[in-house]
Amino acid sequence: MELLKLENKVRFILAVVKGEIIVSNRKKADLFVELQTKGFTPFPKKAKAVEPEVAGATDDTEETEVKSPADSSSNGVQISDYKYLLAMAIGSLTIKKVQELCAERDKLNKEVDDLRKETPKSFWRKDLATLDGQLDV
Hints:
It catalyses: ATP-dependent breakage, passage and rejoining of double-stranded DNA. The chain is mainly α.
């Protein structure tokens, strides 16, 4: 999820820098619709969801929630689900920030790749080695 969030931040900042997304002098609802149509992933604040919802996707099993019409769309995605993009300081909408986020994304990608290469047995061995070291202390 963190990797997807970083990738969305990079896309968002690049779109703002290139002028593809205009943030200033716009209604929040218009910006919300544009983020949805451009495929940015919403991240609801609820801890229930294991995976983030994909923009435009619907889920037949979702619970009905009480929402104000100005704060939501027809598919259950709320404006606050894009807060991770819209709450970024204007000073962070720069190419330098994109480079920092790309470096962070690459580091996270490497960690994910390393974890995928591991076997359950190797995880157990590492945990046991750590436990053994703690027991000696």
